[in-house]
Amino acid sequence: MAYFMHCCAKSDWRLRGLAALLLAWLAIMPAAHAAEGVGVQLAEIRAVNEGYELAAQFVINPNRTLEEALEKGVALHFIAELEVTRPRTWWFNESIGDASRRMRIYYNFLLRRYVIDSGYTTLTAATLDEALALLGRVEHWQILERGALKPGQRYQARLRFRMDASQLAKPLQMGALASGKWDLQSGWYEWKFDAPMPVKSVPLLP
């Protein structure tokens, strides 16, 4: 009886060890999937007074080569690209409009902070994670003029976010061409949407 209880206790200890290892493995799986790439967490086209704007959030996970480049003060340039079309059954989709926005991120040694410049606003962050979150946040980006979409009609959009290696210094460009470690992009993210009702314009006071 004592031998049986000893064996059960020993087996229970082994099972607990295996369970702990399994939980640890599952815990690191999301981090492994999230590494080295760009994902689209949010993409939405909204109506505003001037027309239509895009709100988006990219999740950016650079590899170690790009992180080290930022730590050494190398500026990395990125482009967000959007295309809007109207699906047609018997012909090619009708092009409604396209837009692009350039951004860059670099480390300022004097400020000891990361700088994110979108061409419209300049923000700073203390850590790389915070800086990447700001870099991936797209707000108040007007993509279409008022009247470009018909309310309630179905449209299709596609969006991507990619690093522009052509903006690197020439020696780094050569390295980027020879190595895939300087390639960071999301690929095209596509979705369909019904055009929102336009925002009623507020007349200016005399």
Distance between the termini: 97 Å
- Figure out the total of helices: 4
Relative strand content: 35-45%
Radius of gyration: 24 Å
Oligomer: single chain
User: What is the 3D form?
Assistant: elongated
Which structural class best describes the helix and strand composition? alpha+beta
Unreliable sequence segments: 2-11, 17-34
Task: Give average pLDDT, whole number.
Answer: 82
Query: What letter string, H or E per element, gives the SSE order?
Result: HEEHEEEEHEEHE
Largest sheet: 6 strands, antiparallel
Instruction: State the strand order across the main sheet.
Output: 6-5-4-3-8-9
Number of strands: 9
Helix content: 25-40%
Structural features, described:
28% of the residues lie in helices and 40% in strands. The protein is built from four helices and nine strands, in the order H-E-E-H-E-E-E-E-H-E-E-H-E. The strands form two sheets. The chain has a six-stranded antiparallel beta sheet, with helices on one face. Strands 1-2-7 form a three-stranded antiparallel beta sheet. Strand 1 and strand 2 (51-61) form a beta hairpin. The termini are far apart.
Protein topology:
Blueprint: H1 2-34, E1 37-48, E2 51-61, H2 64-71, E3 76-86, E4 94-108, E5 113-117, E6 122-125, H3 128-135, E7 137-145, E8 154-163, H4 170-178, E9 189-194
Antiparallel strand pairs: 1-2, 2-7, 3-4, 3-8, 4-5, 5-6, 8-9
